[in-house]
Amino acid sequence: MWPNRSVASRRRPQVQQQQMQLGRRKHKPDYWLLIWCATLLAIGLIVVYAISPALAITNNVSSNYYVGKQVIAIALSLVAFAVTAKVPLKTWRKAYKPLLIFAGLTTLLALALPVNPLYPAHRWVRLGSFSFQSVELVKFAGLIWIAGFLAERVHSGTIRSVGKTFRPLLIALMALGVVVAGVQSDLGSTGVLVVMMGTMAFVAGLPMGRIVLIVGVVLIGLVLTISATPYRRARLETFLHPASNCQGSGYQACQSLISVGSGGILGLGLGNSVQAYGYEPEAANDSIFAIYAEKFGFIGTMILIVIFGLFFTRLKSIAERLPDDFSRLLVIGVLAWFSTQALINIGGMIGLLPLKGITLPFISYGGTSVVFSAAAVGLAFQASQYTTYSSSRKNTPEDPDNQRRDFRDNTLRRASD
Amino acid sequence: MPDKSAFSQSVQRVRIWYVALLLVLIIFGIRLFYVQVIQHTHYESAALSDQFKQYQIPATRGLIEAYDSNKAVPIVLNQQLYTLYADPPLVQQPDKDAAKIASIIGGNASQYASQMRTKNTQYVVLAKKLSAQNSSQLLALKLPGVGTQGQDYRVYPDGSLASQLLGFVNDSGTGEYGLEQALNKELAGTPGQVKAVTDSNGVPLAATKGNIETQPVKGDNIVTSINLSMQTQMEQILKQEYQATKSQGLSAIIMNPNNGQIDAMANYPTYDPSDYQHVSNAALFENAAVTDDIEPGSSMKTLTTSAALDQGVIQPNQTFYDPAHWVIDGFNITDIEQDGGPREQSISSILSLSLNTGATWMLMQMGNPGGTQINQKGIDAWHNYMVNHFHLGQPTGIEQGYESGGYVPPDDPNGPAQGLTFANTAFGQGVQLTALQEGAALSSVINGGTYYQPTLVSKTISSNGKVTVNEPKALIKNTVKSNIGGELIPLMQNVVTTYLHEGFAFMNFPSNYMVGGKTGTAQIAQPGGGYYANLYNGTYIGFVGGNKPQYLIVVFNIKPNVPGYAGAYGGQPVFADLAHMLINNSFVSPKTN
Question: How far apart are CA A370 and CA A376, in angstroms?
Fold first, then answer.
């Protein structure tokens, strides 16, 4: 039982009223969001299926191993999606504390448990054959907490306050920096989290000066982290001079560019990837974009970029039409999460950014990523039922319907009280 | 209540952010266009240079066999052993991995670890010659960046037996020295070819078109003419005599004078071919009996006598006046032991007393029968016999690496001291022969005039089972007339009996065998010119048989330290041991009448 539930129960008449309001204003959800999301999942599954024989040879497992695990992950992600789409947003908003605590405990567990020697960073919780990447839960819990936190500050008018808004955000950033970037050495996920938080704060109306300050702090942290760790220095060096060390630290960067570039305009064809046969490291996970590009060429990568673009556009149009701060911030957070993660991943593959060990949302093989991505989409999908039809009240200030649909004040603010 | 402007600012910021996102996506699209379309050719060739591999599948090397009684048995086999290597950039935990490796194959873990940290390489060899069991244990560890690679190694069931004539196979699979070098092409077979797009481990991908893959063809098995029992006993004898004569190197050959096949051939000291890497003196690799040419000394007189008999300028039973010394080109030619002074001598005593003056006299007869001067005609004739009849001054062509051709001085009418030079060659100085050259040349006299190319190969068995018998190859016919052997043989038998009567008891052979020979005590040229005062090589050439010579034996003993003539005390006892060994083992058929 959520601790807040008792509070809500005491205000039962009011809550009932809100629910009635919500129920009345609920409309058809945005199915396009699901269509693009399912398309991305299907593309990912097809690529994983196509390179399964190659992965099986390289990793000495049966040729259905990867596809099987991915199908199970997709099934689990449907469950996650159903849960997040059905359980009301305000329940999620209220549940930020247990979520954060759970994410924190999971991260502690990942730090405490012994690591797989092949992947020595403390990023995984492994229990038997089940393994779980703690940072995905951190992203999910952080998304809900920050959306609620900022919505409350907007409502109470303290969004510009240093003490109430700015300082807690900075503290959260620093905690993330120390744990995720420092101890787990997961600079990629840290980047996703920082951009997600920053975007939400930006959209919530944090003054530009503060945002510039945050960006400055993050940049300084980044420089310190990179200069303090030799392998990051090497990666940066590799990024700046990719061809110089193709046999050593630049191997993956070089192989990724080779995979992408050798695809040409039309690609080698679905079954004809060569790079998946042991050349491209992490061919099914972090490097799946490169393998996709090798198989489907420039045409294929353009199609994928466009699908991602359409998916992002759906999220954006949902966000801008949501009159309520919490749900808008939530959806913009989801958008920032996926887009940042996709850009960091693809940017690394095509040599525009240093390589980071993070997945390409929906496409990459990997259960945790798929399940939590689906959960986040579920939140956005639920929110899409409460959009207004015009994106800004400014255009129709006199519309009484708009007035009535503005349930920012009496619904979700109370939910976070 | 938040004002409307806050909401519109929020939506505006969503849009700003969204536009920025679209801009980045467009930049990504442009970059993809650049990488995939404009730079496509560059990356395609980069991909192929990684993926397209062209390599050889090594062929199994042929075996080498020898005769044990009448049955051919392998004396050189193959064994697949494994090389443990690491690809340092892929190694994740050098210290832990090294400890695991050391627990299986032993060795120094910290050394493995430091090797696995080698920079700028993708291949370091951690250990060699690991067993198949060790290899599979190591592979079961599934250490990233660590693997094993099978490689054929030569195995020698008879240890160092015949090592110098066999040679060895180096790390890159090429035969070095001996048979392995000379017959490398036949033994090696034809490697298979792979030209294919492969996975990162070099396994060709079935799906790709245009792959070329040919299977390797196993190398031929070589059945040598070596008799294992004879070879083994010869090597024991050489070792004993090497010590007994305080020799600095001892070589011997037992060959069939009637077809040129080598039955046994060895040198001492020798080496263990399975451990060739640890041999510090490369000279040990050489089969000195074919690679080292020396001035043979008086054993050469058998050839001089044959040439003179063949020209008809001397008769085997004639006598001649020996002045005990000749002055040729201002130099005195004397006998090594001056006993008796000037007197009548027989042809037989030229060999039995080893008369240098007699050999010189025979050269004089070649130019002018009855004369006592060396003339150009005689030099021409003798030079012709050495080079064109006895095949000296050029390699015999036996299947051995680094065979020496020896040295015959050029026949130059205007050269300085031609007379002296060729007078010297008549008794085996100033001319250089390998033991094999001398044996092959004298064989041609004894067998009735055919110079067979000496050979170690009895037959060749190809990978498809086809047997090719190595027929005797007559390089020169009529080196001497067919009756000359019959004239020379008693002269050489007389040498044996003479030594027996002088007290060399070991030269006593059963009467139903024919044994003949000739010693040679050869002066050794000093690098700066002239000869060493107290250093000699001892040589011996002889035969053993029943009704006719069945085996020809050559012994070269390098710088023995013996209390008499090197030939008689250094070469002769080795010959005697070998001849007795042949008789005692019934390798020789005794006289039938």
Answer: 10
